[in-house]
Each structure stands twice: as structure tokens, then as C-alpha cells.
Amino acid sequence: MSTVTHEAAEVRPASPMTSCRALATDYDGTIATHGVVDEPTIEALRRFRASGRTLIMVTGRRMEELKTVFPHVKDFDCIVAENGATLYWPAKDREELLAEPPSPEFVETLQLAGVDPILRGGVIVATFEPHDKAVFEAIKKHGLELQVIFNKGAVMILPTGINKATGLKRALKALEISPKLTVGVGDAENDHALLDFCGFSAAVGNALPVLKEHATVVLQRDHGAGVTELIDSILASSPSVEPAPSEIVTP
Question: What angle do CA 88, 92, 95 make, to 5 degrees?
């Protein structure tokens, strides 16, 4: 009797892999090493999508910036950019803003405080440490409802309530895929919301220890090799899937 119970426990983690219909992956530090995605990782991502599944990138980068370093955006069904503030649909070359950007006065205050660089997207405003103090002072000065998200030295300013999970939720709703059938993978602080939102989560081998504690599994390999490891596990569990009907489950 105890043997049967043990075998069931061993099989259970493979179930989300078998039912996986979408992969939501971070970019920097996850599929990319120093901003570049190698060819074996590109091939693995293409194999995943060729299996009939949906491929989504969830990144803190702005689309303008991402396109300059990653020429394969069309290999993805959707890109959740600016840490959840925008959606980009590669097939239509269309970007959708999910929130309002901070006011010009806020940006001007940062400039007057000597904050440099100041990176602006459709919604996001970003800089780097140690400018976080000036950012908080500017938010307080203008009485703005903004949040600051840190990511390995980057300081990202976004409307309150916007994160990778909220952006992914909008993408999955449009794609008619349940978050319970989505596998998320990441490496850093701003990936917590992403991993918590997905039905199954993974941290690449180079991920921060605190993120590894949140993940369902910790991959043995780093960066893109770790994502390739994850994709191989998914495809081994179920080589292909039929196009999914609407399976939206409200979290």
C-alpha cells in the first residue's frame, strides 16, 4: 500500500508538464545570457511552439529595446513587455498599453535631480541604482500612485498593481489559455509574480535563491540551457497538443 502511495507522489509533478499548453518565459537571465539568446535555445523555443503550444515572453524590457537585441520576436505568440505594462503581438506588429504612463512632470523632476539614464517606454520609466532614492522622492513630491520594482540593479517605475502576472493574465485571456495550464520560468526578483501566477513554475539554475524557493522545480542548468531542459521535459511528457478550446479559469 505504501508503495502505491509513493509512486503516485512521484507521478504528480509530471501532470502539469503533460497538460502544459503555454510557456511564459522571462528574457534576461532566463533565455538570455548577457542579453543574448543562443541558437540551441532558439531551436528549443521553436520546437516548443511547433508542438502546438503557445510561447509567451514576459520581460521588463521595452519593446523598442528588445527588438534591437533579439531578432526573433516573431517566434513568440505574445510578448508581455515593460514588466507587465504592455502587450506586443508579433504577428500583427501591434503593441497594446495596459496602463497610463507617469506624468511628464514626474520625469522632469527625475531629470532635475540628476537621474541618468532615464529610460521611457509606453508606460514604464526606468533607471538604475543608486537613483532609487531620487525616484522615491519624486513620487512623494508629486503624490503619485506609482510602485518601484527592483531587478538586479534596475529600478522600474510603474503604476500600482502592474506586474508580470497582471500582464500575463491579460495575454492568456486574449489567447484563451488557463494560467493553470501555463508553465512559468524566470530568474530574478521581478519574476515572483510571474511564477506565482502560473500553474507550474520553474527557476533556472542561475536564479536568485529566493526565487528558487518559490518555484515548483529548480532546473539543473543555467539560462537558456535551463529553459531547454524544461522544454525537453514538457515535450517528453506530451510531444504535441491539439489547438486548445477556450479554457479560461478565473484565478
Answer: 30
